Amino acid sequence: MDPIVLALVLAAAVLHASWNALVKSGGDPWVRLALANGFGSLCAAGMVPFVALPDAAAWPFILGSVAVHQVYFAFLALQYRFGDLSHVYPISRGATPLLVAVTAYAFAGETLSPAGIAAVLIICAAILSLTFDRDWKIAPGKGTWFALGTSLTIAVYTLIDGLGGRSTADVVDYIVYMFLLNALPFGLLVTFMRRHALAPTFRLHWKTGAIGGVLSYAAYGLVIWAMSLTPMTYVSALRETSVILAALIGTRMLKEPFGARRIAAACCVAAGVVLLQFSRG
């Protein structure tokens, strides 16, 4: 993988963990997520004068991505409603590279070298190990199931956006218009659900929402751009190293439980990333 692409995808991982931590850090996750999405769309709106309309072939992917993202947003809000950041975030992100590898092979004809397969499996196993308690049992509760639903939707929209970004002459056009439309359905849903408390909640959390929106726009925009140049599975696996930062934020800032075994898992993720980087050589 090109070193610049590698660096930008790892930067996207940091940005992604950061805006998810903001959604989880306090207040209503539905409203915080809707605010982040709304400000992300505002970022895209500011770019509209500088980009062209995506090619006709890209619009089915854009609309499909927007539709799947609405389900993803619902699962994401529910996983943070019922689970800790350091628990549900690794579950929702940990299985994704393997799911993306399967779907990218089935629908895009992408293949991995044996070393690449080994790297993806190491990263997935290490990430998922972060979800276990001291007795090697996944903590029960609704958060786990919602996180698994989140993982499935991530794999689907990653495939859609990976193909969609390649279907237009300029991937930036795709990124801008996908983000422009992405926030509206979920925003309308949350406005209806929280209509009696929306104004005071907005006053309390708009700054967090603005920061989260900018971070989410930058994070996923970089990922879509990277997938237009590099196989989706490689990008997805590197992107999910964000769970290490999320685990640290959850345990240090949000006072969630942690342990030495999770530090070992972080080292395994790093080893998997190194192997993934060299597997294409």
Explain what the structure shows.
This protein is an all-alpha fold and 281 residues long. The protein has one domain. It contains twelve helices and no strands. Helix 5 (96-108) packs parallel to helix 7 (142-166). The radius of gyration is 18 Å and the shape is globular.
Shape: globular
E-strand count: 0
Head-to-tail CA distance between termini: 8 Å
Fraction of residues in helices? over 70%
Radius of gyration: 18 Å
Uncertain residue segments: none
Q: Specify the oligomeric state.
A: single chain
Number of domains: 1
SSE order: HHHHHHHHHHHH
Q: What percentage of amino acids are in beta strands? A: under 5%
The overall pLDDT average reads 83
Structural class: mainly alpha
Helix segment count? 12
Largest sheet: none
Describe this structure in a few short sentences:
The chain is mostly helical. Helices cover 78% and strands 0% of the residues. It is built from 12 helices and no strands.
Which key features would you list for this structure?
single chain, 12 helices, 281 residues, mainly alpha
Strand and helix layout:
Layout: H1 3-24, H2 29-47, H3 59-82, H4 85-94, H5 96-108, H6 114-129, H7 142-166, H8 171-193, H9 198-227, H10 232-239, H11 242-252, H12 260-278
Helix pairs in contact: 1-2, 1-9, 1-11, 2-8, 2-9, 3-7, 3-8, 4-6, 4-7, 4-11, 5-6, 5-7, 5-10, 6-12, 8-9
